Amino acid sequence: MPLPLFSDLQAAIVDLDGTMVDTQGDFVVALNLTLAELALPGVDRVFVERTVGKGSEHLLRSTLAQVGGDAALYDAAWAAYQRHYLAINGQHSDVYPGVVEGLARLRAAGLRLACLTNKPLDFARPLLAAKGLDGFFELAFGGDSFARKKPDPMPLVETCRALGTDPARTLMIGDSRNDAEAARGAGCPVALLSYGYNHGEPIRAVPADGWFDRIDALARQLGRLPG
Ligand SMILES: O=C(O)COP(=O)(O)O
Ligand SMILES: [Mg+2]
């Protein structure tokens, strides 16, 4: 399908990690503080970049497996990880270029906005606030807000229900195949950003309605404006 026009859309659902904020540094620091506390070796940025996307529980389980940690350590690791992540949340992260301008254009075009991330909501809310992005969003949901996470369509279906919008008129904006598969299953159009985390695979190989290098460029395309 071609990318919809603003006039076709009621709302946009926007992913957080890798789409609005480059949070790789936060993940690396919080994981390595956790591993150090458990006397385990650390992980590097490449591992984290390839593993982020399916929620923090998955990231932590994969990290323990990667460094040879016993799966029985998971509960202690999760408690330590939450403590460390909340203490550094946003300090090693930056909003990507074009995000603020792009979100402002989406709002100016009359779209309602919800943030939907696989990150726990208690991590997502303070991050959105710390980066000055919370004011754009009517609703925010995390990986623990619903029974299943992206790539399952359930979180998108439920977010559309909460917004009261038609999925076919609700654009998913994300950075990974988790976002694209969830959108497809929910019947939402989807646009993908090229700079995020897609498990080490090229984003343009993931089926979508459009691929962009910046959210403001996506917003111009929704208005069919040049540039
Ligand atoms: O926390 C993750 O694994 C990824 O979060 P995201 O859904 O905002 O990309
Ligand atoms: Mg993402």
UniProtKB/TrEMBL annotation:
Keyword Nucleotidyltransferase tagged: no
Cofactor section: Mg(2+)
> Is the keyword Cell inner membrane assigned to this protein?
no
- One term under GO cellular component: cytosol
One GO BP on record is: DNA repair
Per its record, the protein catalyses: 2-phosphoglycolate + H2O = glycolate + phosphate
A Pfam family for this UniProt protein? Hydrolase
Q: In which pathway does it act?
A: Organic acid metabolism; glycolate biosynthesis; glycolate from 2-phosphoglycolate: step 1/1
Q: What is its EC number?
A: 3.1.3.18
One of the entry's Gene Ontology molecular-function terms is: phosphoglycolate phosphatase activity
Subunit structure as annotated in this protein's UniProt entry: Homotrimer.
Full protein name: Phosphoglycolate phosphatase
